[in-house]
Write a structure and sequence with these properties.
This protein has 304 residues and is α/β, with parallel strands linked by helices. It has two domains: 62 residues, no CATH class; 239 residues, Alpha-Beta Barrel (TIM Barrel). α7 links the parallel β4 and β5. The two termini are 31 Å apart. The N terminus and C terminus are likely disordered. Keywords: FAD, Flavoprotein, Nucleotide-binding, Oxidoreductase, Proline metabolism. InterPro entries: FAD-linked_oxidoreductase-like, PRODH_bac_arc, Proline_DH_dom, Proline_oxidase.
Length: 304
């Protein structure tokens, strides 16, 4: 009960424009620096190179929420392009993750599509890959529609499917052949569209993982749940699925020892590295996801 209340508080805070605006002035506070790799491209590249040295590959995400103007969306687009250029210049083993709302999805779909084409052209030039992050349920179908349009022209783009949504299994079937990151889900959604029980979410998560792997599609399993990871290891072994067909993914700063262990075992282990000054919403969702993460905030608060 207390855990549910705590989760709801953090999720509510993540959607607050006022708190988000204030947080930009605070700098990386309250433990956020442990899960956000600084505020600049340079800091993100430094983090990526450091992780590469440990045998880990990466994806970087320039955080941004509540974009409401074409100017802001254009600035975010340019930042994504500069980030891809910086990845190429640094030689980091790293790709790019982004959110369509940051690129103007809520402003104008065609405008957002134009911005995505510019980013994907840059990624293609550098032989890199771009992952479209999935946002809340209100943006789910819009995101998948955008992906399908882009996949007509580009192979170097994929997206994310969230296991807590009732629709996820059918979406995974429809996206056979598309590189997907599979996650449990981090937004607060209604019972009409999402499972509310953890056991049901976990069961559906394994269901969509098995579906995508057995279809021969590249699958990124993004979880910190050691039980899920153990089940995936067993499943791929039983079905003779090559390690070249999947990877594990975890968030920057969380379960670092397990990340290195998986890499040492010969699995591709990709670390999701968020950066930028628009960190508040991301950090609140991380606190809501796992009660253990609250320890980061307490430690960060008293270390200032």
């Amino acid at each position: 009960m207390i855990e549910t209340i705590s989760k709801n508080i953090f999720l509510y805070a993540s959607q607050s424009r006022a708190l988000n605006t204030a947080a930009k002035k605070w700098g990386l506070r309250f433990g956020a620096s442990q899960v956000v790799a600084g505020e600049t491209i340079e800091s993100a590249m430094k983090a990526a190179k450091s992780l590469n040295e440990k045998g880990l590959v990466c994806t970087v995400d320039h955080l941004g929420e509540f974009v409401s103007s074409r100017e802001e969306a254009s600035e975010a687009t340019e930042y994504c392009i500069r980030t891809l250029d910086s990845i190429a210049e640094s030689g980091a083993q790293c790709n790019l993750s982004l959110k369509l709302t940051q690129l103007g999805l809520d402003i104008d779909v065609d405008f957002c599509l134009h911005n995505m084409r510019r980013i994907l052209d840059t990624a293609k030039k550098h032989q890199n890959f771009v992952r479209i992050d999935m946002e809340d349920y209100a943006h789910c179908q819009m995101t998948l529609d955008m992906l399908r349009e882009l996949r007509k022209e580009y192979e170097n783009v994929g997206t994310v499917i969230q296991a807590y949504l009732h629709r996820s299994l059918q979406d995974v079937k429809d996206l056979k052949g598309v590189p997907l990151r599979l996650v449990k889900g981090a937004y607060k959604e209604s019972p009409e569209v999402a499972y509310q029980d953890k056991k049901q979410v976990d069961e559906n998560y394994m269901r969509i993982i098995r579906e995508h792997l057995l279809s021969g599609s590249y699958t990124a399993i993004a979880t910190h749940d050691h039980n899920i990871i153990a089940k995936v290891k067993e499943f791929v072994e039983e079905h003779g699925i090559s390690r070249d067909q999947f990877e594990f993914q975890m968030l920057y700063g969380i379960r670092k020892e397990m990340q290195v262990q998986l890499a040492e075992e010969g699995y591709t282990m990709r670390v999701y590295i968020p950066f930028g000054n628009d960190w508040f919403g991301y950090f609140m969702r991380r606190l809501a996801e796992r009660p253990q993460n609250v320890a980061f905030a307490i430690k960060g608060l008293f270390s200032k």
